[in-house]
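ESCALATION

Customer reports they have been waiting on this structure for their group meeting. Please prioritize. Original submission:
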Amino acid sequence: MLNYIIRRIFYALPILIGVNLLTFALFFIVNTPDDMARMQLGIKYVTPEAIEKWKAERGYDKPLLFNAEAEKLDKLTSTIFFEKSIAMFAFDFGRADDGRNIAHEIKSRMMPSLAIALPVFVLGLIVYITLALVMVFFRATYIDFLGVIVCVGLMSISTLFYIIVGQFLISKMWHWVPISGFATGSDAVKFLILPVLIGIVGNIGTSTRWYRTIFLEEMNKDYVRTARAKGLPERLVLFRHVLRNAMIPILTGAVVVVPMLFLGSLLIESFFGIPGLGSYTIDAINSQDFAIVRAMVFLGSVLYIMGLILTDISYTLFDPRVRLS
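Update from on-call: job pushed to the front of the queue and completed.
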């Protein structure tokens, strides 16, 4: 097991380097350091001296990938890419273009993001799996048929629609919860109810149909027929045997959500004015703050790889046939 984890960590290094390189290339195709300086300085007519000073203060005064004027190894190390990338592997994200410490911002904004994403993930998983199991239990009946129709209808509705309708009805007209904002401590609950509810409802259609498909595939396997032949009731077969054997594809799908637990929901945080990592990323993209964007992409890649490793390890808990070595 330990050898497997170490091996996967070493496999992750070239992936993270590739993600860094790709993000770097895409960002600088759109903006050069000079363009970034002009945007951040916010002056219509910026002097070349001011641009050079801004670049020097933030480490953008060197070549991007290759320094032809340097000697030996410095040709690669004395570049913007190397100096901005190598520190990330020690989780030193440096400072944003406006001077704020990125690591401090991530730490302070992580909890608001978790406060939304964790309930959405846990409660959503319970709701989606329960609905899917009910539909499978009543498969080929009107309950299953209507359930599929409702899921398809919900899939065709954008999350933005739920946000707008939820804010208008629940907040503006009925005044049950605040329309936006955030607070600390127990006061945060009233600000989180609507975003969490919308986060769950917005994924009911897609997730319930997906889990229903997984359970239906399991229902046609030999072990289910054997359990029925032994006289086990359908409810016991479904909830004890089918659910347990369907955990591997469920866990695989849950990996995709792991980065979002920490990085937050871009749409929900932006519309509800929640100071999480999602809104932080959106603000960085709008202001074209390269340092923040790269830090968030790197962090998302690390979390995704960690999720994959944890998922592979959890396979052994639900399927004894899986062995990691």
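Sent to customer with the following note: The radius of gyration is 25 Å.
Escalation resolved.
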